[in-house]
């Protein structure tokens, strides 16, 4: 009996030990957030898969900057968080997971240059080996802005195995050099199950919030980037072909035909408004002016066709020049192959081609 009790005690002890033993070290190696002096910022730091862009005022001394990072639990970073470095050129940080099995490199850039006024879409990279991302550079060939799209969300559906099958893709034969091809695509079986049977091709200035794309798609659009110009109009070239079958909520609507949209919104940011989204993009009181193609302009065109849309000032507002200098005004320029694509209505196959876009200011 004593031996039995001893064995039973040993078993119970081993079981308890297995329950309270420490968890395995974390295998993640990510930067979760980036913090800098808010007085120098024109916009909150932009965190992407392997890069961080910090948009700062032109008066910022880039040679003496010390960003502070929040990492996944247990991870370490080199150079250490808070180290003073010279950011006149991008710096590379290496994050190592708690279990020391994984590393991830981040390119961290401080950006003084603001976006220009001409967009030819010649700069594009393949993100995660899956889809195209268009970006803008300054005179030193430094990346100063990534164009956003819904490609990251579309990648979750598994509906395409190559970049050409994504809603937003490069166009080899644009008006001049490369252009952009926006195509409304089926999201396959997974998308249909989730009530999101299609994805419009889109391209916009801002950021796409992947976390909100499933729960609240209209909130996934973070529209706007800081600018130091006051836009007066948008011009460029397009081609458009509508898809054959218009669907709304997955149901065929025989009396409806798809069409495209281009619009731009210029607005003031403040402590309560960092960006616009799909719920307030035309209605927020901070909006200064809006430019949008008219119904008459939304034609189908097989040849490159010029367009021009002026900005209409809302409520006779005036510009605060100091706020403009400080980066407190933002602009979003948006293109989409299906005008109602944000509610998953449109026609699969609708295709909008764009190139040589210019802001007058």
Automatic annotation (TrEMBL):
InterPro entries: PCMD (IPR025112), Put_CMD_sf (IPR038653)
Domain of life, per lineage: Bacteria
Entry protein name: Putative carbohydrate metabolism domain-containing protein
Organism listed in the record: Chryseobacterium polytrichastri
Ranges for domain Putative carbohydrate metabolism: 120-359
